[in-house]
Specification:
The complex is a heterotrimer. By secondary structure, chain A is mostly helical. In chain A, about 80% of the residues lie in helices and about 0% in strands. Chain A has ten helices and no strands. By secondary structure, chain B is α/β, with parallel strands linked by helices. Chain B has two domains: about 25-105 and about 210-240, D-Maltodextrin-Binding Protein, domain 2 (3-Layer(aba) Sandwich), CATH 3.40.190.10; about 105-200, D-Maltodextrin-Binding Protein, domain 2 (3-Layer(aba) Sandwich). Helices cover about 40% and strands about 20% of the residues of chain B. Chain B is built from ten helices and ten strands. In chain B, strand 1, helix 2 and strand 2 (about 50-60) form a beta-alpha-beta unit. Chain B is elongated. Chain C is of the alpha+beta class. Helix content of chain C is about 20%, strand content about 35%. Chain C has helices at about 40-50, 95-100, 120-125, 140-155, 170-185, 200-205, 225, 235, 340-345, and strands at about 5-15, 20-25, 30-35, 55-60, 65-70, 80-85, 160-165, 190-195, 210-215, 215-220, 240-250, 255-260, 265-270, 280-285, 290, 305-315, 320-325, 335-340, 355-360, 365. In chain C, helix 4 (about 140-155) packs parallel to helix 5 (about 170-185). The longest helix of chain C is centred in the middle third of the chain and has 17 residues, at about 170-185. The chains are: A mainly alpha, B alpha/beta, C alpha+beta. Chains A and B meet through helix 3, helix 8 and helix 9 of A and helix 3, strand 7 and helix 8 of B.
């Protein structure tokens, strides 16, 4: 981008890519999980819910540490990475995506679960009496009715990934063009007392967060109105 | 009779209040790499003088920023010499109190590759990732880069470098074997037997002087001054050396 | 009746502290009302028939097709050719009325073959043409319920289940929909199982009734029979009445009166213009029927019919409910008569006695021409 130095522009681009891929992946992963949490009667369901919520409560250093081990040669990450001759998923964009998915998961699962639960049993019973198989009922009734929740989850997931700092710091390795995202770039600028650059990035993030929250509020209002 | 008893009791009370004036407390910001020796020194300090040193560990850069924004630290043990100097220049620290409390030793460490002959190992480059501390944030990182340049391997290895935001993180990358090799502080390998190491010859990098300084907030604190004195003393120095630092 | 002409249901089990043991056979055409006080298990039975609830010990055979049997066979709800109308319309909020209607309709193009329920026909039957492109949130309660009924019909069901479809509506909406339901019953050859706790709805719509109490079926059969069965709670209720099927013989325009024949006699009732040959339901309240030993002299009562006392039961300490069979030989339709014990004893009445039934008021269900 002309005019903006690459040391500012590249982290922004990387951050947006990371957030976008993470959010889409999360929607795919979190939706069935949220569905199960909303509908299941298994006794151990809330235990699963608690595990999913852990990243929200754990300090990033703890989370980052365990992710480091999991992504490394002693964990599943290493096993996957060896498929293409690498030893670890840490320090890779893929590793960042996985870490961001874990860290942002609770922020996506929760609103979607609530949206599914709010639907209740009735619409799905109605669908069954109208010849819809459970699969068809999910896609044509549950999902559309829960869509505000999915949107909220997507927006929160995206925003959280953009702001994610601690975990990325722990496993990213701060590689320019690969894992140096906005949050770690700001850290560097602060460390070297380059306040102007730090402000540009940080200020941008504040504006972004504000826009995100505003968007969420407007979405919820619009859907509430449409339902009458 | 009762009046005398009252006066005596009051006197005893006052004396008992006056006595522990020396049991003071000082707030010390300690560079992360000096964590273990600092804990031992503080324990000994308490035993010997009755004073309590409350230690906070972290990145020197972060501490510096906090100090310049009125963080309540009274003593600053930095991982480098730049930050204490900057603190003095900025009027946040007392000039005469500056001294080098330890000299860091850089070490190449690996749990995967044999780096006993570090130079050869670096030149051979048989590893995917090399971990260093972020040079911006930690002098060990700067030293690592200097070493690699001095050995003429920096350009070849540049693409394999991953940065931890602190020396502790750089260590973690190597410890979890995510990075096969890494430049860490010798003090971090205290008590560690795993893997192989190569102490980098001091000629290859500018000495990592870790300086201590008394901060303005602690100017009137006896406990703080006592701590810095203790740090210069023989008992502390023995501890420091044992942990793998060089001394002035 | 052969298998293909019946609906057999039997469900047994415990739900929480409620224990169900209900079984009945209903004809595979016409309206069968499932009637009883709140909490007696009617909705549970309906949900079991639909497969929305699964009791392990259950039997459901509809027109010869096994939907569930105690050996473990169980057809999931979405595979059962049924239509279900819930108490609250439960339209899909995210779809327009039209798309709600079409949700369960069979896929694939093809003209509406004979016997199939076409979109236009359903829309006309329920009067919802003007609502088609609206959002469900913009409809009144009565409109929503009509759309819900239409939606259920468009799935081309073999059985229609309705769970108190009118109870959530206000008086006006109820009155608005009842005629549509009557039309439904008259025009379609679809068996309907209809839950209600309002006897008025039963009287207007049902041919058969299944009476439930505390999770059990206490009686099932044609409406007329059960209403006049003294062992059942219907007959001894304060507002007990009998509903008869009447055939219009003549209409007297001068006095606005219609003469209908019922089994065993004729009745005269006030009515709007009606043509001979029409069938109309006639309701006679037990309290409006008094008994006389001989033909009374001049009186304002229009209907005095010879009959015989079929049975009598005491209710409360001082009242008697007598079942009166019309016709001098007592072989006709049955009416209920509620009288004081004193009168009963004073007249020396007993089972088999010949009496004259004086029917003070006869209510007619509205005819076709009176639909809004």
């Amino acid at each position: 981008m002309p005019g903006i130095p690459s040391e500012i522009w590249v982290p922004i681009q990387l951050t947006i890519e990371l957030a976008a891929i993470t959010t889409l992946s999360l929607l795919v992963v979190a939706t069935p999980l949220a569905w199960w949490l909303a509908r299941s009667r298994a006794a151990w369901k809330e235990a699963v819910a608690a595990v999913v919520s852990l990243p929200m409560v754990l300090p990033p250093t703890v989370l980052g540490f365990y992710l480091l081990i999991a992504l490394g040669p002693d964990g599943p990450g290493g096993a996957i990475a060896s498929l293409w001759g690498a030893r670890t998923l840490a320090f890779t964009f893929t590793g960042l995506v996985i870490a961001s998915i874990v860290a942002s998961m609770p922020f996506v699962v929760q609103p979607i679960r609530n949206a599914f639960a709010a639907i209740g049993d009735r619409p799905l019973e109605v669908a069954a009496t109208l010849r819809a198989s459970p699969r068809r009922a999910f896609w044509t009734v549950a999902l559309p009715l829960a869509s505000p929740g999915l949107l909220t989850g997507a927006v929160l997931g995206f925003a959280h990934t953009v702001g994610e700092f601690g975990v990325i710091l722990m496993i990213g390795g701060n590689i320019p063009g690969r894992t140096r995202v906005m949050s770690t770039a700001i850290f560097d600028f602060v460390e070297t007392m380059r306040w102007r650059e730090a402000n540009m990035l940080a200020g941008g993030m504040v504006v972004f967060a504000f826009a995100v929250i505003l968007l969420m509020i407007l979405i919820e209002k619009r859907f509430a109105r449409a339902r009458g | 009779m009762r009046l005398t008893a009252l006066v005596a009791a009051l006197g005893a009370l006052l004396t008992s209040l006056a006595a522990p004036a020396q049991a003071g407390v000082t707030h010390v910001a300690v560079a992360a790499n000096f964590t273990e020796p600092a804990k031992e020194i503080a324990a000994l300090f308490k035993e010997k003088t009755g004073n309590e040193a409350l230690l906070s560990f972290g990145a020197s850069g972060a501490f510096f920023t906090q100090i310049t924004h009125s963080a309540p630290f009274e003593v600053f043990l930095s991982a480098d010499s730049d930050r204490p100097k900057a603190a003095i220049d900025g009027g946040f620290a007392i000039p005469d109190s500056l001294f080098t409390y330890a000299i860091g030793k850089l070490v190449l460490w690996s749990r995967v590759v044999d780096v006993t002959d570090g130079e050869a190992a670096l030149k051979a480059g048989k590893f995917l990732k090399l971990s260093i501390a972020n040079p911006i944030a930690a002098p060990y990182g700067t030293a690592a880069v200097e070493t690699m340049k001095a050995l003429g391997v920096y350009d070849a290895l540049k693409a394999k470098i991953v940065q931890g935001n602190s020396i502790a993180q750089a260590f973690q990358f190597v410890d979890t074997r995510n990075a096969e090799v890494g430049f860490v502080a010798l003090s971090q390998l205290y008590g560690v037997t795993a893997g192989t190491r190569w102490e980098v010859p001091p000629t290859l990098y500018a000495p990592i002087r870790q300086d201590a300084v008394l901060l303005k907030t602690g100017a009137d604190s006896d406990a703080s001054k006592a701590f810095l004195d203790f740090l210069k003393g023989p008992e502390a120095r023995a501890i420091i050396e044992r942990f793998g630092y060089a001394l002035n | 009746m052969s298998e293909g002409e019946t609906i057999r249901a039997a469900f047994k089990g415990k739900l929480g502290s409620f224990s169900l043991d209900a079984a009945f056979v209903a004809p595979a055409k016409g309206v069968t009302a499932l009637f009883g006080p709140s909490g007696c298990g009617k909705t549970t039975v309906l949900r079991c028939i639909a497969g929305l609830q699964r009791l392990p010990d259950g039997l459901c055979v509809v027109g010869g097709d096994v939907w569930q049997d105690p050996n473990g066979a169980f057809l999931p709800t979405f595979r059962r050719p049924l239509g279900y109308v819930f108490q609250e319309a439960s339209l899909f909020a995210h779809l327009s009325v039209r798309r709600n209607l079409m949700f369960g309709a069979p896929r694939g193009e093809g003209e509406a073959a004979k016997g199939k329920i076409a979109f236009d026909e359903v829309v006309e039957l329920l009067g919802i043409k003007a609502l088609l492109d609206r959002a469900p949130g913009r409809l009144s309660g009565g409109e929503r319920q009509r759309v819900a009924i239409g939606r259920a019909l468009l799935t081309e069901p073999k059985l229609l289940l309705m769970d108190e479809p009118l109870s959530a509506l206000d008086r006006t909406s109820k009155d608005e929909i009842l005629p549509f339901l009557e039309r439904l019953r008259d025009r379609l050859s679809l068996p309907i199982i209809y839950i209600t706790h309002a006897i008025a709805e039963v009287e207007r719509l049902a041919d058969q009734i299944v009476l439930m109490e505390k999770g059990r079926v206490i009686g099932s059969g044609p409406l007329e029979e059960l209403q006049s069965d003294p062992t059942l709670p219907l007959a001894i209720a304060r507002d007990a009445a009998v509903t008869l099927d009447g055939l219009i013989e003549a209409y007297d325009g001068r006095y606005g009166l219609v003469t209908l024949s019922v089994r065993g006699g004729s009745l005269v009732a006030p009515s709007a213009a009606a043509s001979a040959g029409e069938h109309r339901r006639v309701r006679v309240i037990a309290g409006d029927v008094s008994l006389a030993l001989g033909p009374p002299g001049l009186s304002s009562i229009l209907n005095v019919l010879p009959a015989r006392v079929a049975s009598a039961n005491a209710v409360d300490a001082n009242e008697v409910v007598a079942v009166i069979a019309l016709g001098p030989d007592g072989t006709g339709a049955r009416l209920l008569s509620r009288l004081t014990r004193r009168s009963w004893e004073a007249l020396g009445l007993a089972e088999g006695a010949s009496v004259y039934a004086q029917v003070k008021a006869v209510a007619l269900a509205p005819g076709r021409g009176e639909l809004g």
